[in-house]
Amino acid sequence: MAAQGVNEIILSAHGVTRGTYEKFMTGASYEKFQELLEQLTQLKEQLPETNVMSVRINYTANPDNLEELERFFEVLGNYRIDTLQVRPIMDIGGKYTKQLTGELEIRYNQIIKSLSAQCDKRGVKLLANTLDVSYQQENKDADLAELVYTYISPNTARQLNVEWANCSFSKFRRADHWNRRLWKAFFSKKSGGKWLSRSLKYEEVGAP
After folding, report:
1. Is the N or C terminus of the chain more exposed, i.e. has fewer CB atoms within 10 Å?
2. Is 192 inside any structural domain?
3. How many distinct structural domains can be found in the chain?
4. Which domain holds residue 53?
5. CATH number of the domain that 69 lies in?
6. Are 91 and 99 in contact (CB under 8 A)?
7. Within 10 Å of residue 204's Cβ, how many Cβ atoms?
8. Is 193 contained in some domain?
9. For the purposes of burial, counting CB atoms within 10 Å of the CB of 12, is it exposed (0-12), middle (13-18) or buried (19 or more)?
10. Does residue 2 fall inside a structural domain?
């Protein structure tokens, strides 16, 4: 993947201990996760920096994994991680809906502040939602954000009526009516009201 030009790999880890990681990453293996991080770390050491993909860890904070977030570098600090991306959980209709409220919101921001100092020392970029922890404000750029976020699943080919084996990215975009939706996103004043309208709220914390 690195040789073919992939410039970033994003791994989700909603916990840094085996129990919490495997609880929230259904079907995942904590050992495999660490093995992959070790492989990516070795890759960075073997190849020139310009040819190595960056590693981003996506962490969704909730009442049951919040305290583990502060231990992130204590547990995973030996791996070469370029970006830590953190956001509080939001209710999008999944099985887990416990959100950060009251004192937990305060505690969340305290942990982000602590992580910011650690990230600065390690040269890690920290992206986090600290300005709208409870997701009360609508993201005005939701429609545009959706156009640069491409989600492909096992059902995508059937949904778009394309053959996955011979479908190029440009053909996928035509089937997805991307140009038409881009035009609408630029000139429409209304948000589409989809899940992105209240998500993707990250700011770079501790940036110079």
Report:
1. C
2. no
3. 2
4. 8-136+199-205
5. 3.30.750.200
6. yes
7. 12
8. no
9. middle
10. no
pLDDT for position 152: 76
* Alpha carbon 182 to its chain's center: 23
Amino acid code (one letter) for 178: W
Identify whether the C-beta of residue 129 lies closer than 8 Å to the C-beta of residue 87: yes
Residues 59 and 87 grouped into a single domain = yes
Helix, strand, coil % over all residues of the chain, rounded to 5: 45, 10, 45
Is 118 in the same domain as 152? Answer: no
Q: Would you give per-residue pLDDT tens digits along the chain (208 residues)?
A: 887 888 899 999 999 999 999 999 889 999 999 999 999 999 888 876 666 789 999 999 999 999 999 999 999 999 999 999 998 887 666 667 788 888 999 999 999 999 999 999 999 999 998 887 777 776 666 666 666 767 777 778 887 888 878 888 888 888 888 888 778 777 765 555 554 555 567 778 875 5
Same domain, 127 and 175: no
**119 inside domain:** yes
